[in-house]
Amino acid sequence: MFAIKRRLKLNKQQHCLMAQYAGFSRLVYNYGLDLFWQSVDAGLKASDSKRIQAIKKCLTNVTKKRAEFAWMNQMSSKVYQSALQDLQTAFSRWRKGIAKNPVRKTRKNKQSFTVYDGNGVVLVKSGKSIKIPTLGTFRLQEPLKESYVSQTFTISREADAWYVCFAVDAERIPPIMHAVAEPVGIDLGVKTFATISDETEIEAPKPYKIAKTKLGQFQYHNRNKQCGNKRTGEKASNSAKKYYKKLARFHKRIADKRQDFLNKTTTSICKKYAHIKIEDLNVSGMVANRKLSSAISDLGFYEFRRQLEYKTPVFGSKLDIVDRWYPSSKQCRKCKHKHDGLKLKDRVFNCPSCGHTEDRDLHAAINLANAPDDKCSRVGSSRT
After folding, report:
1. Distances in whole angstroms, Cα of residue 147 to Cα of each of 143, 154, 182, 314
2. If we measure between CA atoms, which residue out of 283, 302, 292, 273 comes closest to residue 365?
């Protein structure tokens, strides 16, 4: 199963419609969350699913029939049903310890909602338009090259643009052959983004670092805007609202550049190499270093690993995660001597035992490629 995501090309009326549905979904989610905790505080004993079902009946049979909520009858019923399903999923993830307890959504959160076809799957035809169940037909910024079959559609807002995403119940056929069959190690770094054990080096763009000066100037020139304050009741001016929209577009371009690089890089790596080994980096600990936090966040180490984890099965490759305590940088690959005196500023590895000299990043990548099986864990399986 994989997902298709496209940007919608909307007019002002359609923009307003999407915002209304996103607000409706957010209201129902918060409504369900409040009633859920009220039922818990009242001492009613029931499972999470039964509580959600009771909340749905209350919304349908009581709340929607009130005069002040009559406008809900004009909205698609699939939107509020999906919102309550999302709430049930949130509680399920919280019970399992996967996520934190659900909290109320605000307008500052990502605006999104989900619709589906109650009769089953629908055909999404190729072309420059898409028919979304219960909403209508909308134009696409980028055409669909093929026709697909799907049932559930999620519409989300990023900056001032709306996107539609739907899942396709199919599997991509992985390639039979890869250009490189033997295991390769990939060492990630700040100076050089990725060094592969076959001496390939990948340089990454640093979109935030490049845009930091321009972003600072833009924020400085708009420092006197009346941005609004909820505590004092001050409303944001129209000029401030335009500034926030432009600022969101600015950050969106930075994120798009980073995602474009990571997606293209991970795809090319999975297509070329049959067996990949990377180190289990403690990214959260690395970000805690104030001198490196900005550079590491800008490069996206965690996202690089996450994409490799789900792309390797798609392209028929294998991914091994090497234990973070394996001394790939300090252990000489020739004599296996551990060089404890190696510092972060040393860019060349000099073995004090056998005299072996090699570029530090390349040396670490080769060590990762040669890491023993007991120091590796295969993605999707238990430690071997």
Report:
1. 11, 18, 37, 20
2. 273
Query: Of 32-46, 157-171, 222-236, which gets the smallest average pLDDT?
Result: 222-236
Here the tokens at position 57 are 């009946």
Question: Which tokens belong to 285?
Answer: 């600990």
User: How many angstroms separate the CA atoms of 335 and 228, rounded?
Assistant: 65
Q: What is the pLDDT of residue 383?
A: 41
Angle of the 12-41 helix axis to the 48-61 helix axis, nearest 10: 120
Per-residue tokens: 30: 């918060």
Domain boundaries, the chain: 2-168, 184-378
Q: DSSP labels for 172-197? A: PPPPS--SB-S-EEEEE-SSSSEEET
Burial class (CB in 10 A: 0-12, 13-18, 19+), 19: middle
Residue 231: both structure tokens together: 């505590």
**91 pLDDT more than 80:** yes
Facing residues of 155 across strands? 113, 164
- Mean residue pLDDT of the chain comes to 88
pTM: 0.73
